[in-house]
Design goal:
The chain has helices at about 5-15, 25-35, 40-50, 55-85, 85-110, 115-120, 130-140, 145-175, 180-200, 220-250, 255-275, 285-295, 300-305, 310-320, 325-340, 345-375, 375-380, 380-400. By secondary structure, the chain is an all-alpha fold. It folds into two domains: about 20-205, MFS general substrate transporter like domains (Growth Hormone, Chain: A, Up-down Bundle), CATH 1.20.1250.20; about 215-400, MFS general substrate transporter like domains (Growth Hormone, Chain: A), CATH 1.20.1250. One of its GO terms (molecular function) is transmembrane transporter activity. It comes from Streptomyces chromofuscus. InterPro entries: MFS, MFS_trans_sf.
């Protein structure tokens, strides 16, 4: 019998992953429901700016939605842990969809500005579909750390793919049809995917017996880990704003989407490759190395921008820079799973995502401030600084532990 080719061997772990009954069905629902997560903010900005003629208002509304998510998402995740995914995720998603519909109606009927904030804040009840999917893998692959590592890598790659394609799809729908098209299609995809995902009851993790386990925030090592997620989110947020500004300064703003897509593509590819590796060192030992690689590779866009000012050279620099983010996120999520009590797993992973989103917001604001006060080239120093801060946090945390 011929030996398998290297490509065949690399794909093996993922093929084995989906031999478990029901995994393909819940993954399909997961991907369909996850794609709109990259659509909603772009769609809301386009829709509000078109109706009210103010990007400042549009930005303020979406920022309010992000703040509401930071407050509401851990609470929704706690309910999922206590009552099960299907019982909580479906009504929570329906309520979030109603918030999107309310936003459309407020804009259509020229309601006061404050109603836009209230309507968009209601969408914060959207469950963390990525966290629920990771919880299913953790349940199905209990006792098989190699397979769980592959599953976590796949989930991270799926995150990157959806956040790469979502904004592109939203912009296409809003520009080709009408400004509300992105929000409407996103809502339909979210509901369809969530119904399909929660219908797969055979793979849903059972509700863990309630214990007096402390909040994930009080678990040993979790505060510093969440701080590292916050710094990593700042890398993403700053890089997005600064890259757009850099391209805009050179009269090629439309190229910014391609550049950011390359960064996401690099992360997606690295995540899939990372999932095929047989890792022997524990996640706690790997995280400093991953964050060190991220800090080192984030200097490439800064060097390309400072030394050449060329978009053509910035493109491969962003592709390479993106390759360190997925391994960092996969390893960080593995530590979240290890450090979170079993009956509060969704809550722990949602806290990590919330920290990440908080970092994205902070990084976007700081990146924009730096571009305004200095230049886009200087702004590329923000992701480098944020990645270095993530490295310092992980090193100091490990030294304390």
């Amino acid at each position: 019998m011929p030996h398998p080719t290297p490509t065949h061997h690399r794909l093996g772990p993922y093929r084995r992953l989906f031999t478990h009954p029901g995994t393909r069905a819940f993954t399909l629902g997961n991907l369909v429901a996850r794609l709109p997560m990259g659509m909603f903010s772009v769609s809301a900005v386009v829709m509000i700016a078109d109706a009210r003629g103010s990007y400042a208002l549009a930005g303020a509304v979406t920022a309010t939605g992000l703040a509401a998510t930071a407050l509401v998402a851990p609470w929704v995740a706690r309910l999922v842990d206590r009552h099960g995914q299907a019982r909580v995720a479906v009504p929570a998603t329906l309520f979030a969809a109603l918030g999107g519909v309310a936003l459309l109606l407020c804009l259509h009927y020229d309601a006061p500005d404050w109603t836009l904030f209230a309507a968009y804040a209601a969408t914060a009840t959207t469950p963390n579909i990525g966290g629920m999917s990771r919880a299913r893998w953790a349940h199905l692959l209990e006792g098989d750390p190699d397979a769980l590592h592959t599953a976590n890598s796949f989930e991270q790659a799926a995150d990157e793919l959806c956040f790469m394609l979502g904004p592109v799809l939203a912009a296409f729908l809003c520009a080709t049809f009408f400004p509300e098209a992105g929000t409407l299609v996103g809502g339909v995809l979210l509901l369809t995917g969530m119904f399909l995902f929660t219908a797969q009851r055979a793979t849903e993790p059972p509700v863990a017996p309630r214990t007096k386990a402390r909040s994930p925030l009080r678990s040993p090592g979790m505060p510093s880990l969440l701080a590292a997620f916050l710094a990593t989110g700042a890398v993403f947020g700053a890089m997005e704003v600064v890259t757009i500004a850099f391209a805009d300064e050179r009269g090629h703003r439309t190229a910014a989407g391609v550049l950011l897509g390359l960064q996401a593509a690099g992360s997606c590819a690295a995540g899939l490759l990372f999932g095929t590796l047989k890792l022997r060192r524990p996640a706690e030992s790997r995280l400093p190395w991953c964050t060190a690689a991220m800090a080192a590779l984030m200097t490439l866009p800064l060097l390309a921008a400072a030394l050449t000012s060329s978009l053509l050279l910035l493109a491969p620099a962003l592709l390479l820079a993106g390759m360190a983010t997925a391994p960092t996120m996969v390893t960080g999520m593995a530590l979240v799973q290890q450090r979170t009590p079993a009956d509060r797993l969704n809550e722990g992973m949602t806290l990590a995502v919330t920290a990440l989103l908080g970092g994205v917001a902070a990084g976007s604001a700081l990146g924009g401030w730096t571009v305004e006060r200095a230049s886009a080239v200087t702004g590329f120093g923000i992701p480098v600084t944020a990645a270095a801060l993530a490295l310092l946090i992980t090193l100091s945390s490990r030294a304390r532990r």
